[in-house]
Structure formats: C-alpha cells, structure tokens
Amino acid sequence: MCNNPDSVNVSVNCLGGIDVKIDECLVPLIEALQSLPTEMRTMESCCGHGDLHGIIQLADGRCLVIVDGWEEALTMRGRGKR
Ligand SMILES: [Zn+2]
Asked: Phi and psi at residue 15, in whole multiples of 5°?
C-alpha cells in the first residue's frame, strides 16, 4: 500500500473527539472506519512504511492487515490462488 518510508502523521478526529496521530496514507480509511459503529472504530494503526504490512486495530480487538492486493491476501492467508 505505502512505499513511502517517510510518511508523516496527521491529526484525525477519532473517538471522543480526541485528535490522534496516524500515517497520512491511512487517513481516508481511518476516517471511514471512525464513522462506523463503535466496535469497528480504530484504536491503533501503522501503514508499514513500505517495509511491513499495514495494520489497523479495531475497538473490538480484531486487527485488519493491509496488503497490496487480493492475490497477496490469499497467499498470506494460506489458501493460495483461486
Ligand atoms: Zn504510509
């Protein structure tokens, strides 16, 4: 998703009206998640800065992993290509 190791953080209005710092490339996704029911809102995130998969932790404890595409996701999940 992000090949910029120098991503900057920006402020986004999150739960309770608190401004938090998140990676700039994740802003649209984080803002969308913040508009969903409380259990889907975000607690922590990191885009991976070109070295790692991006991750977003949700309020209910689940974690979203961001990869570059469907095929990479299937491979990561261990089911291979369809
Ligand atoms: Zn990034």
From this structure: -45, 135
Q: What is the pLDDT of residue 36?
A: 87
Residue 9 pLDDT exceeds 80: no
Q: Is the dihedral of CA 24, 44, 32, 74 positive or negative?
A: positive
What does the alpha-carbon distance between residue 57 and residue 69 come to, in Å, rounded to a whole number? 19
DSSP 8-state assignment for residue 37: -
CA 55 to ligand 1 centroid distance, Å:
11
Confidence of residue 45 (pLDDT cuts 50, 70, 90): very high
Q: State which residues have CB under 5 angstroms from ligand 1, the bound ion.
A: 2, 7, 23, 25, 47
Distance in Å, CA 27 to ligand 1 centroid:
10
